[in-house]
What does this fold into?
Amino acid sequence: MRMTCTTIRQAAGSLASPLPSRFSPVAANIHGTIPAMLATASVVTYALLLLLWSAIFTLYLRQRREAQRSAPLVAVLMSVLALDALKSVVESGYFGLVWAWQYGFLGKSFAVLSRPGPLTAVKFLNLVVAGIVLFRLIRVWIPTRLAERSGQLAKLGEL
It folds into this structure.
């Protein structure tokens, strides 16, 4: 079976249900076609995103530790950014595996990732991270910033 733009669009539109077993573009005779290169580029892009977001996550954690001593608001910002980076690591890894399976780079054991349960778990993680970020902003960032501003205004009033 040749992989065409139509089969890629069909694969993209049906993440929730596994594709027919005959859909295996890597195993099929697709060498030299543009869709095969795009499929490979897609999987490689997810792998690169996973590596980049992992490095960013690590940097945020290191900076957060240093900022806790000297700048608490910067530490809060770093924790929020680290959470977002962690979410991006998980999503890049998950979707990279899903598409690698869809395009035939991985075995049938990865088909379970295209079911609604794992996708829902990844999206639930996204909701949890959003809730934590909102909580941190409301309970820590905004009150601390308002207190700083009040202190600055009081100092200006004394002058």
